[in-house]
């Protein structure tokens, strides 16, 4: 058991909550600072629900700039770009383009895979130890491809056939009969039988409830800020008032960049907006397996009696407001792909900002401030990577600083 510290975690999304819980389990006193009345109400609220432990390839890959260009010229495409007079946006996009090559993608996929597998093992332990149900299931994940070249490329990347199986269109339909009508349009699919699904918001509530029962935990509602002190440390303020702590972990999602700026950090984080729909479907119409429609970049996951459909990357969105045109497009795509699982007219829309780094690799590191650590930038995989990222923070607090300081 490491020496007990008094640690403050800023941010009550899935990353901050998992971090706080992991630190409590490691024997520390933990204060969670969250600006909203409750937890998990920003990017962690209604995401795709996929715990995608095997399929972790970052968005930045060879061929993506060409595909993105084609998408940007097509109405209703999965990616939209609004250019802003914002140097941060331009720098982020330039770094993203630099990461769009096979070598960088392979290197970053390997880093993410390691973190994801640690996440899966950690979550298994936490569930076994008695977290309240959060609609967790392990139905496996099927990524279906309509484009033959993209499917061949994905099939070539499969290195362990026990973890990922390459399927023909006919086999895809057998694995998930709800998508059988799509089989004639498919080139094939990759099935990861050990992947999981769950409701991220319920997971946040389950962590909140587990921690509320632990005497070493305290939750504070307030707006945190950081400023440099003179002794190689940073000061934490909550609602402008000094907050005493041994260590602080910044896990404030997309808001982390603003928080870190007064300390001289320009974190390469950008909020990539995405959308979801939650449908209370007709009984017996829901897919069991979670499915990613790769070419449309849409994910489908059954969460209890509901179907969660998530998609789209809007670059240059200023906030997480729901754009009715994007939601109408998502509704139409879902109705085309899985018509029986409606009614889509009554589906609940949502939008959130993925806190994304250009490479897709999160920043989980100590910093030049002795008392500050970052746990930010999980992007499109924040739910999947939450537990592994939290356990990595525990390593750093214990003094295993192998990955260096930011
Ligand atoms: C459409 C969509 C689909 C997705 N699908 C999946 C999926 O299927 N699988 C997956 O793994 N991931 C998915 N993601 C990604 C995942 O949802 C995010 O990566 C994750 O929720 C980020 O969690 P977070 O805790 O870092 O950020 P958040 O959930 O945004 O939490 C940050 C918290 O910090 C708080 N905060 C910010 N500033 C301050 C401050 N100054 N003081 C106090 N509190 C502050 C905020 O209020 C917020 O509660 C999806 C995302 C989107 C948008």
Q: Can you count the beta strands? A: 20
Query: What is the CATH class name of the domain at 65-100 and 136-195 and 270-356?
Result: Alpha Beta
Radius of gyration: 21 Å
In helices, the fraction of residues equals 25-40%
Distance separating the two termini = 26 Å
CATH homologous superfamily designation of the domain at 65-100 and 136-195 and 270-356: D-Amino Acid Oxidase, subunit A, domain 2
Low-confidence stretches: none
Shape designation: globular
What is the CATH T-level topology of the domain at 65-100 and 136-195 and 270-356?
Answer: D-Amino Acid Oxidase, Chain A, domain 2
Characteristic key phrases:
406 residues, alpha/beta, D-Amino Acid Oxidase, Chain A, domain 2, six-stranded mixed sheet, globular, binds flavin-adenine dinucleotide
Descriptive overview:
The two termini are 26 Å apart. Helix 1 runs parallel beside helix 7 (200-212), helix 1 (14-25) packs parallel to helix 10 and helix 4 (102-128) crosses helix 10 (382-398). It is globular and about 65 Å long. The model has no long low-confidence stretch (mean pLDDT 95). It is built from 10 helices and 20 strands. The chain is an alpha/beta fold and 406 residues long. The protein has helices at residues 14-25, 64-72, 87-98, 102-128, 148-156, 169-175, 200-212, 256-260, 324-337, 382-398; strands at residues 6-10, 29-34, 50-51, 79-81, 141-145, 165-167, 188-192, 196-197, 217-221, 224-228, 234-238, 241-243, 247-250, 270-280, 290-293, 298-303, 306-315, 348-356, 363-366, 372-376. The protein has a domain at 65-100 and 136-195 and 270-356: D-Amino Acid Oxidase, subunit A, domain 2 (D-Amino Acid Oxidase, Chain A, domain 2, 2-Layer Sandwich), CATH 3.30.9.10. A hairpin with a 2-residue loop joins strand 11 (234-238) and strand 12 (241-243). The structure holds flavin-adenine dinucleotide.
